[in-house]
Amino acid sequence: MQDRPTDPSLKLLLDALALAPGNAPLRLHVANLLERAGQAKEAREHFDGIVDDAGTRDDAALGSARCSLALGDADRALQSVERVLAALPDHAMALLLRARAHEKRRDHRAARADYERAVKLDAALADPAHWDALLPAREPAADAGTDGPAPPADAVAFKDVGGLEDVKERIRMRIILPFHKPEVFAAYGRKAGGGMLFYGPPGCGKTWLARATAGECGASFVNVGLHEVLDMWIGNSERQLHAIFEDARRRAPTVLFFDEIDALGMQRAKLVTGAMRGVITQFLAELDGFASRNERVLVIGATNTPWDVDAAFRRPGRFGQVLFVPPPDKPARAQILGLKLADKPAAGLDLGRIADQTEGWSGADLEALVEGAAELAITRSLASGVVEPLTMALFERARVRLRPTTREWFSTIRNHVQFANESGQYDEAADYMRRHGLM
Ligand SMILES: Nc1ncnc2c1ncn2[C@@H]1O[C@H](COP(=O)(O)OP(=O)(O)OP(=O)(O)O)[C@@H](O)[C@H]1O
Ligand SMILES: [Mg+2]
Question: How far is the CA of 234 from the centre of ligand 1 (A)?
Answer without folding.
Answer: 29
